[in-house]
Amino acid sequence: MKEVLTFLARRSIQGIFVVWGVITTVFLFRVISPTNPAQLMAPDDASPELVRQIEEDLGLTEPIFVQYVNYVIGVVQGDLGFSYMTNTPVLRRILHALPGTLELAVAALLFAVIVSIPLGIFSAMYRGTKIDSTSNLVSLGGVSTPNFWLAIMMVLFISVQFGLLPTSGRPIGLGEATGLLVFQGDFGGLSSWVAHMILPTIALGTYFMALLFRLTRNGVLEEMGKEYILAARGKGLPEPLLMYRYVLRNSLTPVVTVTGLQLGGLIGGSVVVESVFAWPGLGTLFIRSLNVSDWPMMQGILILVGAGYVLTNIAVDFVNAKLNPQVDLA
Amino acid sequence: MTPKILKVRDLTTRFFTDAGQVNAVSGLNFDLGQGEVLAVVGESGSGKSVTGLSLMDLIEAPGEITDGEIWFRSPQLADELGGQKEKEKEVVDGEYVNVRAVSPAIRQSLCGTEFGMIFQDPGAAFNPSLTVGEQIAEAVECNKRLDRGDTYGLLDLIRDILSPKSSFVSSESYERAIELLDRVDIPDPIDRVDEYPHQFSGGMLQRAMVAQALASDPTVLIADEPTTGLDVTIQAGIVDLLRELRVETGMSILIITHNLGVVSEIADRTAVMYAGELFEVGPTPQVFERPANPYTDGLLGSLPDFDDPNARIEPIPGNVPNLLAHEMPSGCSFADRCPKATEECAEINPPLEDLTEGDDHRVACLHAETTRRVAELSVESPIRADSRVDSGVTNE
Amino acid sequence: MSERTSPERQRRNRTAPDTENEDEGEKTRSESVTPLLRIEDLRKHYVDKQGVAEWVLSKDPGRVRAVDGVSFEVDRGETVGIVGESGCGKSTLARTILGLHEPTDGYIEFAGKDVHEQIASDRKRFARRAQIVFQDPSSCLDPRMTLREIVREPLDIHQVGAKAHRNEKVTELVERVGLSTDQLERYAHEFSGGQRQRIGIARALALDPELIVLDEPTSALDVSVQAQILNLLSELQEEFNLTYLFISHDLSVIRYLCDRVVVMYLGQVAETGPVDAVFERPAHPYTKILLESVPGARNRIGEEAIKSDIPSPRNPPRGCRFHTRCPVVLPPSKYGMEFEQDAWQGIFEYKLRLRSGRLGRERATELAELTDNDGNEETTAKEAVRDSCSIPRVLSDSTAEELLDQSLSALVDGDSEMALKIMNADFESPCEQERPAVVDIDIDTDHRAACLRASDEEGEQ
Amino acid sequence: MISDRTRTSLKKELRSNAVATIGVILLLSMIVMALFAPMLAPHDPTDQDSSRNHQPPVFFGGEEEETTRMIDGEIRTVTESNVGSMTHPLGTDSNGRDVLSRTIYGARTSILVAFSAMLVSLVVGTTVGMVSGYYGGNTDTVLMRFVDIVLAFPALLITLAMIGVFGSVNVDIPDPLVVSGLVSGRPTHLTVPITITLAISSVIWVWIARVARGEAIAAKNEEYVIAARTMGMSNWKIIWKHVLPNSITPILVLATIQVASIIIIESSLSFLGFSGTNLSWGYDIAAGRDYLGTSWWLSTVPGLFIVVTVVGINLLGDLLRDALDPGIQRGGL
């Protein structure tokens, strides 16, 4: 227990430094960016005085350092500022868009893990067979296909040709759908949610699935060549147990690492997938803000995603340390 | 004379690599007596480790045992298999069973019961994510289940995975693991049984490896370089442990090593390998004092003498050959380094033959007689011969 | 702390060979008296990296005391062996001497001058005088270079002579170490282990150094090849008037090649002296055990092999570092010498086990169960502990017996802290308290050892 | 830079691995296409003609229809051919531009961005990694913390943010093939999207730096490096002569695999409309989305080209990895 606490303390301190770096970088983006937010917020025919007034309201006339300190203090207190465009609190908008992206990312992650890991083990165990070479080919395709194109192709073949599955939007969230089911016994919400989720999930998860498949397959193959596998055979350990307790457990470390780290990649990838499926999530919000130089909004999203990455990183290290007793937590 | 527990005939193991075929072990013939310690010595690339793995049937692709018979004395198994008509001759011969010809299931069941193995690098031979005790207990458990005729299939595995409380290893096996750790003189076995391999030092891990091999009371223990890479004080402990166990359990030990000092302490007989072939085999004192093969002679002469600093060492010129089939000479593989080589040597690969009738000392060399004579002459200064027996500590 | 008694120690009867090096201006007149290499109280500690988090948590960085107070001298033309088991700091010592590591403390003098000053003022100049040959033939040569490039590299760095001269010198060196000049354009990986080691030697010789540090040069080689390299090394020494510092864990190789030997244990010198003297008449219990452990050696004892592990240099034992494994630990002075060594060793074992925290009440009960004696539970448990540490059932000294019994009772009651407290208070060996000074065993041959028993004997004389 | 051993093992791998050979051929043809686009493209990729818009690829049918149109001030009945023909083997887009020519020109943008971004990343990443790994200590800590910060952002988000900061800067350079008069009737300039290239480099270099650092740390402890130090070689020279040559193989393997990531990022950016040029695969895919129901080939064709290119690079990467360095791990997007 004590070592777990030291581990968490140590990693949180490191994490805080990274997050501070993230905040600073993001602040610098806004400073360097050539657009003048006051100009953007003011009506087109605004007088220079009005623009000046807005600048002052936004605190942009203060020295950079003061602005920086104010910004960092704000972020620490959970205040990400106000959107230049809608003048609503950034945090509220982000929290509103977050569930869409999270649902998508988690679904894609689950899809990828559930398909890839068993397939990878199977492929490694039956190395060189037809199933192995087919899976390899599919995974090669998977890591080589841009997700937005895969999404379009799926829309083309599944929705346009056969009229199956909706191609855009997210009419209902998971929470709401479950609510309907539980309180009103209405399956409609949930089925609509599922129907809307399928295509985006596959589009987003395929690359990741192919990647995990390769990692699992290589990991298992590598593990099967270790000397302790020989030793275990030498002592007569039953083969299924050998595969489970020796091969699989030890080949999972890189899989866990990549799974955790790719969560960031999934959120990045969702920017494009969301745009294809008109999915109301962080990605769509980010693109919309980018198009109008709404820096507070973009900064907020970047900080949130960066902090999320740092947290998953700590979690991944923790899980790996639990899986692998050689890793010292302290 | 004690009965032989193992008779190896024409054992040949090859590796089919990208660079070509490697003849790691070629036509090996030797016997292992009941309760005997046979040392297989040789330099790197002599095929001594492959011999051990071949006996355990642990050769993996691209390697393959291409030829040979391994007759294992097991009256019980011979009885069981004797009734089967087809190919009987190849499988059973009196009390002996050719383990190369039995079904894979029987072959596998011999591993970990009749045959135990100690690996060279204990750090790599233990699974890093399971405790040492658990792994030894597994070996105990496997052996128990085999005795009971329990098979373990996929369904058992699924049951074990699904019910977190059930474990493959029973608590009795676990207790036995503690006893075994205690037997190999690991201090505080009750605490150490729950530690992971990386928490053990090299020497302790090697002891644990011995404990794991002992789990099944093996008839034959194959020890592959059990002291290599260990500090000299720790080495001594392992050698002593093996010696004790041999007396205590009466098992036969095949010890594979390049450390002639270890050999002189523990082995009844010594087999010298070079380039995948057996060059000389005989009682240890005879091989050390009156080596009949020039290679054995050279090997002994290369060792700095620990007890006699004034003895000069005489290196063998040249390098250990590689074992690629197409680069190996047709004659004696030592011919190009041998001080006694004649033209004949380059053409004829000498077979392993008795040096003299009945004294169990066999040698593969066209000039064995002369070598022997010369060696005998040099024995006239007894110090040197004596010191040679004692010499030798090298490790990698 | 070890106190070197007299720096002006009588030197061995070895004539310093005449090193002809015209350009060495700093050659002092007293060269024949000063040793080529003098190391005094050298320490090299590795401190664990301290990251941001450690700094914030103000955690004490760990410290590996790889070399911890080592002193010895190497005369010109001689071969000094450094022997010890893994983790004794011998490789760190070698690399610190060559200036590859900054010493934590202490002094290294090469030809009468501070090595680290020499390096600070002119790295290259020092490089010409001291070179190293490494252990691992697979890593000691850059795989992307040819034999010619490897051997010529030091000449290129120091811009020795013209190009043609360098190539000539390369040919000369390559032939000298027994390689064929046909192979000059071959890459490192095309050579066998023994040949690579020869290349390493040729590279070290290229700058005509005075000192060559040989860091386990043959431990990765087969015996037949090792013999070739050992003979080559001794030929070269004679031919080029080289001084060798030979590091090895192989006692027979040390004995074969070296004039003097330094036995190291956990970063400190246990014993030093002429090879013959140390090997024939070892004064330190560690040296004795080391020599008796050599498999196949004439005086190998067998039964006495140590079963415990080498402690970590991260947290070395106090006092004499060998006391946790020593078979002849000094008994506490108050019980005097009449205390039987066997009984005392048993008591000491009991104490060490208590200290390691591996002996508690549960363990005592478990031990008792294993013996399955009937009768009083407490007595059985106590006797079981005694047996497991091979302490006699009754000690000859009655005070000692009483105290030991108290400690055992505390242990069986579950108060292992108390049990240890009693042991610490009343059974404190001098070996645990005092770091033994280096004392002379034989002044004439410069045979010295760092053991309290040896100092006692010296005191008696 | 490449040793004999490397070359032989590469050759062997190529000979034994037919799939890898296909990959190398695919990649090479893409590069050739990019280099000689003006000569290979049958039409000017920007040439619009509404009379032949939405022509399907050859053999994929289509129909002729008569419409009335205003031509030269007169109302005429003309036959508009929407039948796939060899003139436009892969069909035409909504503006009647030749899809094949556009795709060939699109390869240019992808390959140009991929190679220049990789060059920048290699130089920066290798330098930082080498210095960080070899010197260690505080230098290492500072540099690696910086790397951590960059890694905390998803690649695509940070490139988008940088486009937001710097705007879309593009440089038109004259197309040498057209300027020299070898071909005519093709666009005279080729557009180099500077912001996109630099934005992508700013995330890719960290992956290179991490591998380079690991290699430098490993090489630093090799005995031949220590030997060079005892011979009095300076640190910079040791890095240049010993550490870098012995680290370069895994770095190059990673770089190859990362080129695939760059191509995907680039096409994603242009798909989202942040490309500096409209001659790009992602741009065409996005443009074709609106006509999915009628003109399926518009999005399909450029996408297939992306997949083929990336498959080629990945196969080459796998080949290099198998031949040179079995231990390396692929870094994701």
From TrEMBL, chain A:
GO terms for molecular function: dipeptide transmembrane transporter activity. Residues 98-320 form the ABC transmembrane type-1 domain. Keywords: Cell membrane, Membrane, Transmembrane, Transmembrane helix, Transport. It comes from Natronoglomus mannanivorans. It is a multi-pass membrane protein. Its main location: membrane. Belongs to the binding-protein-dependent transport system permease family. The keyword Cell membrane applies. This is ABC transporter permease. One of its GO terms (cellular component) is plasma membrane. The chain crosses the membrane at residues 12-32, 104-126, 147-165, 193-213, 252-277, 297-316. InterPro entries: BPD_transp_1_N, MetI-like, MetI-like_sf. SUPFAM superfamilies: MetI-like. It is found in: Cell membrane.
From TrEMBL, chain B:
Its EC number is 7.2.2.11. It holds the Pfam family ABC_tran. SMART domains: AAA. Keywords: ATP-binding, Cell membrane, Ion transport, Membrane, Nucleotide-binding, Translocase, Transport. SUPFAM superfamilies: P-loop containing nucleoside triphosphate hydrolases (SSF52540). It is an enzyme of class 7 (translocase). It comes from the Archaea. Residues 6-300 form the ABC transporter domain. It is found in: Cell membrane. One of its GO terms (molecular function) is ATP binding. This is Nickel import system ATP-binding protein NikD. It comes from Natronoglomus mannanivorans.
Automatic annotation (TrEMBL), chain C:
Residues 37-291 form the ABC transporter domain. Residues 1-10 have a biased composition (Basic and acidic residues). GO terms for biological process: peptide transport; transmembrane transport. This is ATP-binding cassette domain-containing protein. One of its GO terms (molecular function) is ATP hydrolysis activity. It comes from the Archaea. Keywords: ATP-binding, Nucleotide-binding, Transport. The lineage of its organism: Archaea, Methanobacteriati, Methanobacteriota, Stenosarchaea group, Halobacteria. SMART domains: AAA. Coiled coil: none annotated. It comes from Natronoglomus mannanivorans. Belongs to the ABC transporter superfamily. InterPro entries: AAA+_ATPase, ABC_transp_ATP-bind, ABC_transporter-like_ATP-bd, ABC_transporter-like_CS, Oligopep_ABC_C, P-loop_NTPase. Residues 1-34 are annotated as: Disordered. CDD domains: ABC_NikE_OppD_transporters.
From TrEMBL, chain D:
PROSITE patterns: ABC_TM1. Residues 107-317 form the ABC transmembrane type-1 domain. Keywords: Cell membrane, Membrane, Transmembrane, Transmembrane helix, Transport. It holds the Pfam family BPD_transp_1. Residues 43-63 are annotated as: Disordered. It is a multi-pass membrane protein. It is found in: Cell membrane. The chain crosses the membrane at residues 20-41, 111-134, 146-169, 189-208, 251-274, 294-316. Gene3D superfamilies: MetI-like. The keyword Disulfide bond does not apply. SUPFAM superfamilies: MetI-like. Belongs to the binding-protein-dependent transport system permease family. PANTHER family: D,D-DIPEPTIDE TRANSPORT SYSTEM PERMEASE PROTEIN DDPC-RELATED, OLIGOPEPTIDE TRANSPORT SYSTEM PERMEASE PROTEIN APPC. This is ABC transporter permease. It comes from Natronoglomus mannanivorans.
